[in-house]
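Quick one, tokens below:
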């Protein structure tokens, strides 16, 4: 296989958003293949038993199918903003924070946002527990634009797509009731950043006969 790396992605998936954020920051071009999650292409399933997005297939044939690994691969190849340098300085703290988001926060986010998928779930209870996780980040931000100051960092890229999902579950409550003002400003800053528009481009669901979409 020769040419651009191939990224199987789903526009709204927070894990796929992570990958696209890092690829955009690195300016490594790839062929973007938008996936319909209820009808995943056989080409993706053949290279990844995980069968969820994102999946990155390099031109060497190597497959990377974990979002954080895709981020680190892309930035290891090209990191004009020094995101990995900053990450390495606070690696333990950042890894612990991302793990908390990927486990505890994500579990309660799903029960809050999709209560019909679970038995006996009270979504507000899970909203409250998830908000407790965000309270820890609120204390870190402390009126800065991002976690480590005024610049978007590796940690922000890995976490903010999930905070966006939390807001989507009930935007009115998030915007007008949730008592975490710095979290609100943090997400607003991210959504208003030009990088957000660039990674959220809309493309048709990929088919083998489709014209190649190059990203970024």
């Amino acid at each position: 296989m020769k040419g651009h790396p191939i990224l199987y992605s789903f526009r709204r998936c927070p894990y796929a958003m992570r990958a696209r954020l890092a690829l955009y920051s690195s300016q490594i071009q790839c062929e973007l293949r938008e996936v319909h999650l209820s009808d995943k292409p056989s080409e993706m399933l053949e290279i990844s038993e995980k069968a969820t997005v994102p999946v990155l297939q390099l031109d060497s044939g190597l497959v990377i199918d974990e979002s954080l690994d895709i981020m680190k691969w892309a930035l290891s190849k090209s990191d004009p903003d020094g995101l990995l340098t900053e990450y390495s300085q606070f690696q333990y703290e950042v890894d612990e924070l991302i793990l908390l988001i990927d486990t505890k926060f994500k579990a309660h986010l799903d029960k809050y946002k999709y209560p019909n998928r679970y038995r006996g779930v009270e979504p507000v209870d899970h909203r409250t527990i998830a908000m407790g996780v965000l309270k820890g980040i609120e204390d870190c931000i402390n009126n800065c634009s991002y976690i480590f100051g005024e610049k978007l960092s590796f940690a922000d890229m890995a976490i903010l797509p999930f905070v966006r999902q939390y807001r989507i579950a009930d935007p009115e409550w998030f915007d007008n009731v949730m008592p975490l003002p710095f979290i609100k400003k943090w997400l607003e800053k991210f959504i208003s950043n030009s990088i957000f528009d660039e990674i959220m481009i809309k493309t048709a669901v990929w088919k083998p006969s489709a014209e190649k979409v190059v990203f970024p």
